[in-house]
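To close the section, here is one more complete example, presented without commentary so you can practise reading it yourself. The ligand is adenosine monophosphate.
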Amino acid sequence: MKYASPRGTRDILPEESALWQQIEKTCQQVFALYNYREIRTPLFESTELFSRSIGKTTDIVSKEMYTFTDRGDRSLTLRPEETAPVVRAALENNLIQRDQLLKLYYIGPMFRYERPQAGRYRQFYQAGVEAFGSADPTLDAEIVIMAWQIFEKLGLLDLEVDINSVGDEKCRPQYVEKLKAYFKDQEKALCEDCRVRLQVNPLRILDCKEAGCQKVIDKAPASADNLCPECKEHFEKVVGWLGKSGIKYKINHRLVRGLDYYTRTTFEVVSKQLGAQNAVCGGGRYDTLVEELGGKPTPAAGFAIGMDRLVEVLKSTGHLPAGRHGRTQSTEIGIYIATLGEEARKKGFEILNDLRQLGISADMDYIGKSLKSQLKAADQEKARFTLILGEEEIKSGLAKLKNMQTTKQEEVPCDARIIAAKLQLPK
Ligand code: AMP
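Output:
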């Protein structure tokens, strides 16, 4: 019997994980620049947390959750997104304080039972932020600018921000009514799913990708044209900040996003370097979610970056991390110790341990290779130096140290400190 990874999941192998580490590091650096701190929450939560926050009629809750009953008869769900768990954790641990801005970030896997295709997986990875405690449009602008900075730093090209406002509890109900009346008139042209959406959640129709529906959607009333004065002013300020920051953006009236908790700003960052699944980041404001989940009214905003798609773009454009043969410097070893004979092997192992204690990446053979094969291995491992130890070297107390780039060789005492000083490796 042969096993394979479950449909929609895959292994990230060492050649690719260097790229993942680079993306994670870039995200962490930029998040720190904006004063966000990391939070880690469980991979599963009570099912109710997601159905309440994301919305029962959304695709995620109605058909994409990995839900199971545990042995204690609890209904649990593998997290399909991280905003609700972060809100839950912030409330449970009393992190949200009056008159204080709370800024958190996370990096990790999410799970959705979606139809797998390029850029869409059942286990995928997101890096995201959530900020609590400010209703100010500069916060909306800050998170868009932050996402943009991450993509620029990674060398992504052809980016654009799609932005919209879905209003708030004051103006959204009227807009939804208007939308409902419009779609009701056009019901015959809508797909079956959208006819159901018309009854349960007309906003969701704007998301539909069916050609017939698209034509109807094109002429539908736009939420940005139906905002109350406060929401309108908020939206104008956010867009104004983006303009000032030199970010390429477009107002996209259809952008309602697949989660129900958004209020006012919604946005996506899209890359033209990707195919159908071209969004690399999605987010917005969610001013009522904290209260819905049992907290005091707290305005908030956040986004999630799809890391799998970033990896796709960076791989396709040859943006592999610096270092020889696609390896990062941290995965190239500093020194390979090649030995001949039992005494030399013992001495070699001692030096190996000492070098590692001194913070130098080092390796040697453990499978009984000949000296020739060991030297070949040193080459394959992209070692910067090789230390050669044979019987003669043991007698004289001097080993041969070879610089693999210049091929220059010199004699060095069998002492890890002296050897380490000779290596001049990047830290
Ligand atoms: P969302 O949590 O739906 O707002 O999505 C935020 C970002 O996560 C999207 O823009 C995608 O880049 C990424 N994403 C969402 N679902 C998937 C998936 N099934 N596979 C890969 N990436 C995804």
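Once you have examined the tokens, check your reading against these statements. The domain at 333-420 is CATH 3.40.50.800 (Rossmann fold). The CA atoms of residues 40 and 106 lie 6 Å apart.
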